[in-house]
Design goal:
It contains 12 helices and 12 strands. With about 325 residues, the chain is of the alpha/beta class. The strands form 2 sheets. A 7-stranded parallel sheet has the order 8-7-6-9-10-11-12, sandwiched between helices. Strands 2-1-3-4-5 form a 5-stranded parallel sheet. Helix 10 links the parallel strand 9 and strand 10. Helix 1 packs parallel to helix 12 and helix 5 crosses helix 7. About 45% of the residues are buried. The model has no long low-confidence stretch (mean pLDDT about 95). It binds (2R)-2,3-dihydroxypropanoic acid. (2R)-2,3-dihydroxypropanoic acid binds next to loops.
Length: about 325
């Protein structure tokens, strides 16, 4: 088996491939591969490890129908037409579970950074604007006892809820298709309607997959139903909120602040007004960026490839995302 990898990945993964006698090539250029290039490269390979947001649509899949496996090195796979892959009998795998804690850490960090305007204040020091101490300046809001609303409570949302309940005694409400019994049992989390989530959350954190149903779900009309002192956090996918509407909502004080690890597009342009707002914290999609987590993600991707190389069912196979 020969595998093409669309980025340089942790040695944990490549070592496993090597030990299984699997040849691989890593794309080491510091730019995204175009779809044309990826189709061309894949003609010489039997498997693909896709890292980042490579567009694996029907055109790609039909042009690479010889692939024996596609291993997405991420938990999200909204860049892949999994239904088309299933029709062509190409198994698609992802890396579930291993990045939940690291991603929830970033959601928690953003919540705290926004509530105390930390990133904006740091930037003021850098531009020599520490300035005169005014007791009524630079005021944040405290999180103790505030309600955390989770949109899409799965593994990552559960970790975020756990941390927030433990650190700040935050009551948890959530909106899901199905109840999350562990969160209800262990954290007293309460399943609510979408409208109730908007109306009652002091911090609203998004942890859902990007699907046709969640794309642009947080737009101007939704922000206008949230509390005026609410903080919006998104560590899932940038396309779940409408960025222009978020900017307006913040400018018009419909909500208090926002923390984003994901933007639309990525990378965010340096001229984006969000970057100069005091109550906003933006990070460059680093939810899973720890030594431990990226190593574990590479390991799971390698496990998917190795299973396919033996003709076995891949261990972390995904199903088409339902809308
Ligand atoms: C994921 O796994 O979907 C993350 O966004 C990648 O870091």
């Amino acid at each position: 088996m020969k595998v093409f990898i669309t980025r340089k990945i942790s040695a944990t993964g490549t070592e496993m491939l090597r030990q299984s006698g699997i040849e691989f090539t890593e794309w080491v250029e510091k730019r995204d591969i175009s779809q044309d290039e990826l189709i061309r490269f894949c003609q010489d390979y039997d498997g693909l490890i896709s890292v980042g947001q490579d567009l694996i649509d029907e055109l790609f899949l039909k042009s690479c129908r010889h692939l024996k496996v596609i291993a997405q090195m991420a938990v999200g796979y909204d860049n892949i037409d999994v239904a088309a892959a299933a029709r062509l009998e190409i198994p698609v795998g992802n890396t579930p579970g291993v990045l939940s804690k690291a991603t929830a850490d970033i959601a928690f960090l953003l919540m705290l950074a926004v509530s105390r305007k930390a990133i904006f204040m740091h930037k003021r020091i850098l531009s020599a604007e520490w300035g005169f101490y005014e007791p009524t300046d630079n005021l944040g809001i405290e999180l103790e006892g505030k309600t955390l609303g989770i949109f899409g409570l799965g593994k990552i949302g559960f970790e975020m809820a756990k941390k927030s309940a433990a650190a700040f005694s935050m009551p948890i409400i959530y909106h899901n298709r199905r109840p999350h019994s562990q969160a209800e049992r262990e954290l007293g989390a309460k399943l609510v309607s979408f409208e109730e989530l908007l109306k009652s959350s002091d911090v609203l954190s998004v942890h859902t997959a990007l699907t046709p149903e969640t794309r642009s779900r947080f737009d101007y009309s939704v922000f206008s139903l949230m509390k005026k002192n609410a903080i919006f956090i998104n560590t899932a996918r940038g396309a779940i909120h409408n960025e222009a509407d978020l900017i307006l909502a913040l400018q018009e004080n419909l909500i208090w602040g926002a923390g984003l690890d994901v933007t639309n597009p990525e990378p965010m342009l340096a001229s984006n007004p969000l970057l100069n707002m005091p109550n906003v914290a933006v990070l460059p999609h680093i939810g899973s960026a720890t030594e431990e987590t990226r190593g574990a993600m590479a390991r799971l991707a390698a496990e998917n490839i190795i299973a396919a190389s033996k003709g076995d069912k891949i261990p972390y196979q995904v199903k088409p995302v339902k809308s």
